[in-house]
Amino acid sequence: MTFRILRTLAALALWACAALAHAQSYPAKPVRIIVPYPAGGTTDIIARIAAAQLAERLRQPFVVENRAGASGAIGAVAVAQSAPDGYTLVMGTASSHGINSALQKNLPYDAVKDFAPVTVVASTPNIVVVHPSVPAKTLGELLALAKAQPGKINFGSTSPGGSPHMSAELLKMMAGVDMAHVPYKGAAPMLTDLIGGQIQAGFDNLPSTIGFVRGGKVRALAVTTPQRWPGAPDIPTVAESGVPGYEVSGWFGLLAPAGTPKSVLDTLQSAVAQAVQQPEVARQLRDLGAEPVANKPEAFARDIAADVEKWRKVVQATGVRLE
């Protein structure tokens, strides 16, 4: 019995030493951050800001790799199936780790069980925009047009089942309007068609669209968050535009495969927190239309679970399905 106890204590000591050594040496080689969406979109932009800051603080390259497809599922499952050592991360979103669980019946990963959340890097509203030729200066006027012409107003989104798409579906349900969805594979092609007048309206993450709003290429009608966005205080919220109770917030957060040592998660979270506390980094994110967050892994895990439950209810209520 004494021998068994000593052997157990020795094993625990070895495990503790190994964990400590891992924490002290991590990262000892380059780290991949997989972005499960195309280059140039909001997720990609925020991932590259985070990668640069992590590389500076942790003294190893953090390499961004785009693996787009299936509303973020292709990139997400690649990370879920990777070794839980902290060298493969994903920049997840409310779509890849919230909406997908509600929309995709055969999703090849579990957004809660297959990942170890690190931190939300930043959050952002989605934004409702229209081509300047559309005779609607407010969201209320756009909804009135949609009610007068059911199914005639078309809107683009950055991916089927993504946060912008589901923002629109929730708005349609709550406002009682019918608008036609035109799905795109990313923000760039959707905005190209919107600016060109091929579609009338668009739903997108604010960071990848706000530059076109400021340049007069598209007209902003509303943001989806409960409060107006500090970087664009002249744009009203959906809730104050005649749809009380409406709320959708986008988030962009780093996750590792389930089983990644807590010491690694804490190292990454601490580095992100240090970065976003720097005025220049915070300004860079806010200029994009994103708000720095850097919450703890435990808080991020609770947020993901809540998001999954929220979107399951929305999908059940709207009956929306992927095209």
From TrEMBL:
Residues 1-23 form the signal peptide. Keywords: Signal. InterPro entries: BUG, Bug_dom1. It holds the Pfam family TctC. It comes from the Bacteria. Belongs to the UPF0065 (bug) family. This is Tripartite tricarboxylate transporter substrate binding protein. It comes from Alicycliphilus denitrificans (strain DSM 14773 / CIP 107495 / K601).
